[in-house]
Design a protein that fits this description.
Helices cover about 5% and strands about 45% of the residues. By secondary structure, the chain is an all-beta fold. Strands 5, 6, 8, 9 and 11 form a five-stranded antiparallel β-sheet that branches. A hairpin with a 6-residue loop joins strand 1 and strand 2 (about 25-30).
């Protein structure tokens, strides 16, 4: 018998890597293909309508859901071209309980996170939250011309 899936998080991740060319006065965005990421239970993540959109759901059999591309664990990772300056994404987070969500920019050697974003559901409580234009400065983190990992993690509290 299949466990009933409760939708407690509708997470629409619009993730775009912003490429800034120094000789051109405007930005060009390149989407990251989230369909190439790994998840423990494929039915807990849906993709679309674009390759850079994903929705994570709670599965009653697990207390967490993740969407990951971690080179330390053997995934291909994401190469950051030398002409890219930021990673920008939007999150819509809907929960009916005290659930948490985090995003991590992963070191391919398994070291400390380069960047961590955390929505503390215990402190914030249930509701609808929007995080627009969350921007990570890849130049400041010295991540140009390297491969990184990304992970989106949903935790039931």
């Amino acid at each position: 018998m299949q466990a009933k899936k409760t939708k407690f998080l509708s997470l629409i991740m619009v993730i775009s890597s912003m490429i800034f060319f120094t000789c051109i006065p405007y930005a060009v965005a390149t989407p990251i293909d989230l369909t190439q990421f790994v998840t423990r239970v494929p039915s807990d993540v849906t993709f679309g309508p674009n390759i850079n959109d994903a929705t994570l759901y709670e599965d009653v059999g697990y207390s967490s859901t993740y969407l990951s591309n971690d080179p330390f664990l053997g995934d291909p990772g994401i190469f950051v071209p030398a002409n890219m300056s930021t990673l920008t994404f939007d999150l819509d987070f809907f929960t009916t309980s005290n659930d948490s969500f985090s995003f991590g920019l992963l070191d391919p050697s398994g070291g400390a996170l380069f960047f961590d974003f955390f929505h503390d559901g215990t402190a914030m409580g249930p509701g609808s939250y929007q995080y627009s234009d969350v921007t990570i400065d890849l130049i400041g983190l010295n991540l140009l011309g390297v491969t990184i990992g990304l992970e989106f993690y949903l935790q039931s509290n």
